[in-house]
Structure formats: C-alpha cells, structure tokens
Prior knowledge:
The structure is a single chain. Helix 5 (393-402) packs across helix 6 (490-500). By secondary structure, this protein is of the alpha+beta class. The protein is globular. It has a 6-stranded antiparallel sheet with strand order 10-19-12-17-16-15. It contains 6 helices and 25 strands. It has helices spanning 26-29, 42-57, 124-130, 329-346, 393-402, 490-500, and strands spanning 68-69, 84-90, 93-94, 107-113, 146-148, 157-162, 168-173, 187-189, 192-194, 221-228, 239-243, 248-255, 261-263, 269-271, 281-285, 288-294, 299-304, 312-315, 321-328, 405-417, 420-433, 440-446, 459-468, 475-478, 485-487.
Amino acid sequence: MRKLRPGDKNRGPETLDYCPKPHSQLGQSWGADPGPLAPPLQRPLQNLLLLWTLLNCGLGGSAQGPGEWTPWGSWSRCSSSCGRGLSVRSRHCIWFPGEESCWGDTHEYRLCRLPDCPLGAIPFRDLQCALYNGHPVLGTQRTYQWVPFYGAPYQCDLYCLAEGHAFYHSFGRVLDGTPCSPGAQGLCVAGRCLSAGCDGLLGSDAHEDHCGRCGGANESCLLVQRVFRDSGAFAGYWNVTLIPEGARHIRVTHRSRNHLALLGGDGRYVLNGNWAVSPPGTYEAAGTRVVYTRAAGPEEKLHAAGPTSEDLLLQEPNPGIEFEFWLPRERYGPFQAQAQAQAQALGWSLRQQQPRQVEAQPPELPAAPATTVPRIPTPTPDACEPCPDTRGRAHRLLHYCGSDFVFRARVLSRLHQAQETRYEVRVQLIYKNRSPLRALEYVWAPGRCPCPRLDLHREYLLAAQRLISPDGTQDRLLLPHAGYARIWSPAEDSRVRLASRRCPV
C-alpha cells in the first residue's frame, strides 16, 4: 500500500485485500485443518472468520461494483500568509479485487483569500528562486543570484534568471499555490495552471448564471428586454426606464446625437446630467460599476454587472433605445405592474398577449334541396416525409446553448396556417429563458409538416428561439426545422440539466 501524491491521477487508489482468492482456494486458505499444533479454541474463531468472509465477500469470491470513497478530510491551512493561496483536502478509495475503481479525484484544491500583502512583500516565486542563491548549480562550483524569468513556455515550472548573465535555468515545478504569472488569476497546482470557479474550487468549471447563483440555470430571475420608442413630448430629459434594485447584467445601447443620462437613487446624476456631457469611463453607481462607452459615431453603450443596491433611472430624449437587465423573480412583479401602467405612455415594446382563441367557423348556409350528384373521390393529401434523425448529445447541446428558451410544455392544440404550424402549449417548467414566459404560449414551426412534429396532449422538452418581425409587430417563439423537441422523461430532464453546465459563457 502506497501513499498517493496530490494531483497524481494516473495512479490507482489504495487496495485493501480483505477477501480471499477465488472460491476454489477457499478450503485451502480459510477452511483447512489447522493441524495438530493448533490450540482447540482456534477452530471456532476460524469458523466465525469464514462466516464473515462469506457474508462480506460473497460466495463468488470477489465483490462486484465500484469502490467507495472515504469522507473528505479537513482543509489544510492556506499556502500563503497574505493575498491569494490554496488549501487542499484529500480522500481515499476503498475497493476490493475485482471491483471498479472510484470515480473522481483524490484531492480537491480550494482558493483561499487573505488580506492583501503589504507593500514591498517578496512574491512567492521570487522566494523560491532565492532559495538557490549562493548554491552551486549546473555541475560547477560557481554560484549565482536568481530572479524569476517569465519568458519560458511553461508557467508552472520554476524558471530563474541568473542576475548579470544571459541565461536562465529550470529548477522543476513551482510550489503549489504559486501564481501562474504576475497579475494572473490562475494558481499552479501539480504543474498545471488552474483557475477557480464560482464555487472556489481550482479547476472547477462552475460559473454564475445571470441571477448570480453559482452553477444555476437562470431559474431564480427573469430577463427584462425592451425598446424605448417614444420621442418625448417636451425638450430635455425623458424617463426611459427605472432599473430596480437587484438588477444584474444591465445593458443599454442606442444611436443618436443625444446622450444617455443616468440618475441615482439620491436624485443626483451619475452620467450626462445637468446639461453636461460626461467622458467615457467607469462610474460607481448603486453599489456596482457602470461602464460607459461612446464610439466615434453616434453609438453609446452602458453595461454593469450588478447587482444594484438601489434604483437607477435611465433618461434620454430619443427613441430606439434598447435596454435589458435580469431581475430576481420576486422583484419582477412590481416592475412589470409599473411597466404595463406606463407602456402606452412610454411606447415600450411588450410581447404580444397570446390568449387562447377559438377558430372562426364558416357561416352555415341554408339547406339546399337534396340532389343526387356523382361522388368524386377526394385526393388524399400527401403524407409528410420522415423527419431527419436529431438524436444525440451534440444536437442537444447545440440547441440548448443556441436557443433563447428551453422549457417543458404540454401540447394543447395544433393549427395549420398557410405555410406554418402553430402549437398552443402549457409551460410547466423553465430551464432557460431570455425573457419572461407565460403559462400559455404559442410555439410556431415552419411548414405544414414541421420537423419535429409534436403530438397532442403529450409533454415535450422544447428549445425555441425568439423571432421579432422587423417592424416590431410580431414577437414569436419559433421551433426551428430539425430543432430540439424531445418527449419529456426524467432521463431527458437530467441530460438537459447537464447540457446547461456545458454552454460557453
């Protein structure tokens, strides 16, 4: 039994050989006669040991199934005394011969943050190079003073430059917790440069969603997306929208000769207020940083990560301003009530309501006298061609990441209109949404024989795109041809949730 080194993933876990060899050797190894020299009390102990072996290892001789991890140990102390460092914890795999090994890593590394290092503190990599000062290297008795060298290809090897000389030398790997390069966010672990996810674990691919939840799928917030279309009834500042407290991922763009103005909750302007033009740059407002850019042309942009700690008011006297931000679900209701009350006055582009409709029936004609006419056989419509095969993980991932909406819905009705098919669906669970979804929605598919075809009264997982007409009069959910529409099942639900973690940010 050997000790695993941190980060050594190519080595197997520890083996605890509690069980005997195959059952053909059981009598020789465990049930054989102890011989005349064995004490009389040894036989009952052997029988008890044989019973324990059969119960724990099975009559087949070797237990089947994966091994089991021991609980994680405690986190170690931080590798640094100031600034950023790492902590490590480990676990061990317990498995028997014939079993599969444990899945996962034996060690986990966590980013630890301490107070900033004081001015003049020696960086960690400099200290490691300085350990070789005054010691002979390179097979000679000459000694050198060493400083870090950052021009070598491997960030996590300790390359040191001999002061006053034109050569550098590699002293192997840097110690774990060494920054990969000056100013970089990554830390070296077992010779690899790793960055921390939002869960604080190095090497993790966990990201915050638009709601600010680590590893979330935007379930706890909604996207507000509008276009301001009113030109204002007077000259001067015109209210565009209130950006409520708690808003995240705020983006505002427009093109005009006028300038965007931002008013803080205390009534003082953050940007372009009091008839003065502010320079592009980063501004502090409502507990977040607002980045204001203005190109050489008439285009202006605002964006802020959020969350905002108070309300902000966006002002501008021109139409055509596009803005969006994400709001926690509990804050969306009050904002929507205010937006609907002001929609007609402000000219916001809201998604059209889609109530359930009853299709108009042709008027009944008066009964005509019965006449005998020859029966003309009506041609049967051409059957729809088979849809292309859209199964597979790559297809699911492509449509999940590229769609505006992913949700579970039950099909209530289907209607063919010209060269389109309209489904009325009841939304039951939302996995991804770039704007709010109602309980009842219409989903449109191109053609009278759409692919994939949705059956009535069945539940599906759908990936839809938002399609807005150029004049802004139509706002639809579109199910693309050969898009993602799978019959809902617990297994497909798990696959979709896994796909949500693999989309690029």
